[in-house]
Amino acid sequence: DAKTTQPNSMESNEEEPVHLPCNHSTISGTDYIHWYRQLPSQGPEYVIHGLTSNVNNRMASLAIAEDRKSSTLILHRATLRDAAVYYCILRGADGLTFGKGTHLIIQP
Amino acid sequence: SQTIHQWPATLVQPVGSPLSLECTVEGTSNPNLYWYRQAAGRGLQLLFYSVGIGQISSEVPQNLSASRPQDRQFILSSKKLLLSDSGFYLCAWSVLGIVNYGYTFGSGTRLTVV
Q1: For A2, phi and psi rounded to 5 degrees?
Q2: Contact B26, B73 (CB under 8 A)
Q3: What count of Cα atoms within 13 Å lies in the side-chain half-sphere of residue B41?
Q4: Distance between CA A83 and CA A47 in Å, rounded?
Q5: What is the rounded distance in angstroms from the CA atom of residue A94 to the CA atom of residue A16?
Q6: B92 contacts in chain A (CB < 8 Å)
């Protein structure tokens, strides 16, 4: 899988929107952009994925740059339960390779 | 609906003892199956993946082995545990051959080798 770059940590306040960035300048045309999150002492949880168009689901939105070299996961209204490590991953034929992710801290 | 079961949740084993962790998937056929390990404070490392019964691919050389005796059963084993085998072990499944599909992870086994 191609490599992604994410900030090590981010901090936000409860009930405010959160924008988690991810750079993937070497993405190939067939790579899907996947986001997962991992709460403490739990397995990763699928959040959202997309290819070219922006995507929305009940958990989050995914905004994908026109050149696909970057994307942003948007949590519209963060809660304390959203505190987790968020992984941005490019999924190709070889499966998922996890980086270090972004540790999201939510302040009450 | 599809579910994935992984057990035990926690395990404390002495150095040199054997290991067997089991993972089973329900509600799907012919899944891709994966074993990941997460050392304390580190990211997830893919250990093994399987695309079918008896088919195992290893990503990194290590003291562990994997087997897939049935379509929806994936087992992680070791003959003699090392201290460095401690970590959080996660099993996952995905739909075979489809990149536009997410992974579903089990709840994990926290292994401490003492």
Answers
A1: -70, 160
A2: no
A3: 0
A4: 13
A5: 36
A6: 43-44
Which chain B residues contact residue A34 at CB under 8 A? 102
For residues B96 and B104, what is the distance between their CA atoms, to the nearest angstrom? Answer: 13
Determine the straight-line distance between the first and last CA of chain A, rounded to whole angstroms: 37
Report the residue of chain B nearest A91, measured CA to CA: B99
List the single residue in A with minimal CA-CA distance to B57: A94
Is the CB of residue B5 less than 8 Å from the CB of residue B26? Answer: yes
Instruction: Tell me the pLDDT tens digit for each residue of B21-65.
Output: 999 999 888 999 999 999 887 788 889 999 999 999 988 778 899
What amino acid is encoded at A2 in this protein?
A
pLDDT in tens, A16-61: 999 999 999 999 888 889 999 999 889 999 999 999 999 999 999 9
Unique residue bearing structure tokens 């740059």: A65
Distance of CA A79 to the CA centre of its chain: 16
CA distance A44 to chain B (A): 6
Residues of B in contact with A49 (CB under 8 A): 100, 102
Structure tokens at A71: 């994307």
Q: What is the DSSP string of B8-68?
A: -SEEEE-TT--EEEEEEEES-SSEEEEEEEE-TTS-EEEEEEEEETTEEEESS--S-EEEE
Calpha distance A27→A107 (Å, rounded): 33
